[in-house]
Amino acid sequence: MPTVRAEPYEFSFDPGHVALLIIDMQRDFVDPGGFGEALGNDVSLLRRAIGPTGRVLAAARKAGLLVIHTREGHRPDLGDLPPAKKARGRLATGIGDPGPMGRILVRGEYGHDIIDELRPQPGEPLVDKPGKGAFYATDLDAILRSRDIRQLIVCGVTTEVCVNTTVREANDRGYDCLVLADCVASYFPEFQRVALEMIKAQGGIFGWVGESADVLTVLAHLPEAAQPRAA
Ligand code: C5J
Predict the structure, then answer these.
(1) pTM greater than 0.90
(2) Residues in CB range of 148: below 8 A, 6 or more apart
(3) Is residue 155 annotated as a catalytic residue, yes or no?
(4) Structure confidence by residue, pLDDT tens digits, 104-120
(5) Taking each helix axis from N to C terminus, what angle separates 189-204 and 164-172, rounded to the nearest 10 degrees?
(6) Helices marked H in the chain — which ranges?
(7) I need a surface site. Which of 30, 79, 110, 205 has the fewest CB within 10 A?
(8) CB atoms near residue 24 (< 10 Å)
(9) Is 86 a catalytic residue?
């Protein structure tokens, strides 16, 4: 089995059973002029993850890995938006309200969609999630199990919120997660550091933390016979 340099120890890469999971690389979080920036955040901190994630995405596609994208958001009628989530933050302009890129975190709106740089290709599952975790109230687990996926390479935003929540959910369901430090990002440098520490602490209590360059090396050398079927 190929191994990837990682912490707390090397990650054994099981080529027939690994998928790439890209979490919430949505315009409203990542693009200038979106909801994230309107809240006063510096989106350049998130945008650092775009280049490395794009390279991992291209390599994963070339290697035939299953690629899954997620988006956080809600039905246009907001029927799946818990009142507590709507009220949180006491925002003048919050989820469901008209924002700089359409109604904020509402499915079908421009700001809710994935950024152009990482646009999903036809056939790549796109999982719409109403919560922070990608397993909550979605068919992600069914999609992964139907393809016998047991390992996830994780990219996306934000490290301490939707990435961490998803990795914890995945861990409880028996998946091994390798989180790529340069492919995940936070608006808060301290949270970025600590969120990654939490994943790899105590012998990898939630998973592994690695770097995209090491995964790119492994993906480039996958024997063709070992490659999983994308769909
Ligand atoms: C947040 C996310 N931060 N995708 N969402 O609200 O992490």
Answers:
(1) yes
(2) 16, 17
(3) no
(4) 999 999 999 999 999 99
(5) 20
(6) 27-30, 35-38, 44-47, 50-63, 83-87, 140-146, 164-172, 189-204, 212-220
(7) 79
(8) 26
(9) no
Measure the CA–CA gap between 73 and 113, rounded to whole angstroms. 9
- Spans of all domains in the chain: 3-153+194-222
Structure tokens at 32: 């200038």
Which among 28, 85, 162, 177 is annotated as catalytic? Answer: 162
**Residue 182, SS3 per DSSP:** strand
Rounded to an integer, the average pLDDT of 20-42 is: 96
Query: Are 158 and 29 spatial neighbours (Cβ–Cβ below 8 Å)?
Result: yes
CA 220/CA 205 separation, integer angstroms: 29
Q: 161 CB less than 6 Å from ligand 1?
A: yes
Architecture, CATH, for domain 3-153+194-222: 3-Layer(aba) Sandwich (3.40)
146: three-class secondary structure by DSSP = helix
Q: What is the pLDDT of residues 190-225, one digit of tens each?
A: 999 999 999 999 999 999 999 999 999 999 998 654
